[in-house]
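Kindly review these tokens for lecture notes.

. . .
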Amino acid sequence: MPTTLTAFADVTTSDSALRRFLHGLPGVDAVGLEARAAALGTRSIKTTSKAYAIDLAISMIDLTTLEGADTPGKVRALSAKAVHPDPTDRTTPMTAAVCVYPDMVATAKAALNGADVKVASVATAFPAGRAALPVKLADTRDAVAAGADEIDMVIDRGAFLAGRYLETYELIKAIKEACVRPDGSAARLKVIFETGELSTYDNIRRASWIGMLAGADFIKTSTGKVGVNATPANTLLMLEAVRDFKAQTGIQIGVKPAGGIRTTKDAIKFLVLVNETVGEDWLTNHWFRFGASSLLNDLLMQRQKLSTGRYSGPDYVTVD
């Protein structure tokens, strides 16, 4: 029977206790993990299922701009695209969120004007995570105060890789507390591991458990700013982690693969992973997201192909 996090209370009392727990998790069979991810990626779906999958994938996208050259105009344009991804077809679903830097949260919030699209903000010295805790907390609080519905934080990979697991846990817990507004409501917290820098699947499993134990609402693969981002294998591993966590605690955690997912074919492979690993409960944008802005354009072109029988070409969609 599902329990609660109280069953894991002793695990986070000290660094040594947390280390014993994390290193006591079953080792990851890398060959088996990659083979299962590859096998699930070969599944074919019928045309009617493809149409459903495309709309579902659109509704799961966090439409993102995280560049030093971001301007209010670009954020407003991105917000408009999130609400009406295809202005010629108002049956197209809205995206799940618009993701911006903290200083652009208010602009995005105003541009969305009450639409059912969340405003997500990266925080904690994204993407490197190299800043003092007071800076990370201030970064988070500024974004929440500006109206962010969701916070995408990065862990200190240096601390994690050095084995300072409790420090990593306490950082996530502190940011989770900083997500709470004065009225008691809270922004949802996505915890980014930057899986491409964690070196091993065992480390990804350990990071997933640290994030979940610390109160993450989502665990997220990557920032999209390094060479290796979301892959079917590392996403499958994280899906298995949230499945096991729910079985033991009754608490459901979301998953967000980010970076490198560019085509409709790729997105459908990830949706198959979700369905076959954790089931329909996660097939909603409340529990699964894509951090992949360029993916939206391909989804729109494939959606147009299904409805008209022809491709409209890349100039059919806006360039982000």
Remarks:
- The two ends are 47 Å apart (CA to CA).
- The beta strands are 62-64, 97-100, 118-123, 150-154, 188-192, 218-220, 254-256.
